[in-house]
Amino acid sequence: MEGEQPLPADIAELSYEAARDQLVEVVRRLESGQGGLEDSIGLWERGEMLARRCQQWLDGARERLDDAVAARRSEGSAER
Description:
Layout: H1 9-12, H2 16-32, H3 37-79
Helix pairs in contact: 2-3
């Protein structure tokens, strides 16, 4: 999205599964309500970045699938 800050390197390098697992842990910690306000805000911000990383992976996967379907369709129409 326009105007978004780049993700920190430790998040930008995560696989989908690693980002998802960390996001689940962030949610668990937030739901426990054990941290103070500053801790909760930091967790929330990290959770937002982890969610963005997961969405990047999902968007990339969707694009690759769309490209594969389009290539398959053009191969099929070329064979006719």
